Amino acid sequence: MKAPLKEEGPEYLYSKLKDNELKSDWLSIKFDATYTDKKNKNDFKGQIRIRKDSLIWITVSSLSIEVFRMVITSDSVKYFNRLNKEYFTGDYKLVSEFMQIDIDYDILQSILLGNDFQFYESNSFRASIDNQEYKLSTTGRRKIRKEAEVQKNDPVVLLQNIWLNPDSFKITRMDVKEYMKENRKLQATYGDFLPYEDQMYPSSVNFEITAEDIIRLNVSYNKVTLHEPLSFPFSIPDNYQKI
């Protein structure tokens, strides 16, 4: 039987979380995944390439045939669908509609890696112990704004919980909601951590999106490569229709 955890303050736990995050300027992930909603269940494979804080490149294949390719930056989303011969270029409205929660590049990059959000306030967490794990909670987390940045709309305020493994201080589970939209929730669960040099990464990542429907995405990271510069090929064929 494990001894009870020692209580720790939120500042200490958050600093340990940040110390043990997955860190790399370049990252490549090959994965298998299953997507499930109330009508469909689909299995597929793919690859994710990330240039930290700059670009996320995703390709998805089914039966060894590429279905679509996507490039996401801090302010744009582009993708093309080879099956329908269609393409899209626009902003984060597409991603937010799919995930049924307002999302930005920082949040998307963080949840893919099992890290915390970089560009959101971190001084409002409360610490507790939950089922032999440390838990950090906040009910008013806002994005950090640059002085020169003009805020056109009301800022998004997040309600967030983070569970930490007490030995590795890796995030094992995270959920996030928007203030005043508590019927919408994104939850990510991380497990089967594997070593990479002096770091650890989750090889099992499960996402659950709760809104009008429940969407589940169960992902296995099969091969992870850090630190190696990557290319991000993306070229929309001339005969594809814009949507």
Brief overview, please?
The protein is mainly β. 11% of the residues lie in helices and 51% in strands.
Oligomer: single chain
Helix content: 10-25%
Lateral arrangement of strands in the main beta sheet:
7-8-9-10-11-12-13-1-2-3-4-5-6-14
- The chain-level mean pLDDT equals 90
Q: Your description of this structure?
A:
The chain has 243 residues and is mostly beta strands. Helices cover 11% and strands 51% of the residues. The protein contains three helices and 14 strands. The chain has helices at 10-19, 93-99, 105-113, and strands at residues 26-36, 41-51, 55-62, 65-73, 77-81, 86-90, 126-130, 133-142, 157-164, 171-178, 181-196, 199-210, 214-226, 241-242. A 14-stranded mixed beta sheet has the order 7-8-9-10-11-12-13-1-2-3-4-5-6-14, with helices on one face. Strand 2 and strand 3 form a beta hairpin.
Key attributes of the depicted protein:
3 helices; 51% strand; 243 residues; mainly beta
Give me the secondary-structure topology:
Blueprint: H1 10-19, E1 26-36, E2 41-51, E3 55-62, E4 65-73, E5 77-81, E6 86-90, H2 93-99, H3 105-113, E7 126-130, E8 133-142, E9 157-164, E10 171-178, E11 181-196, E12 199-210, E13 214-226, E14 241-242
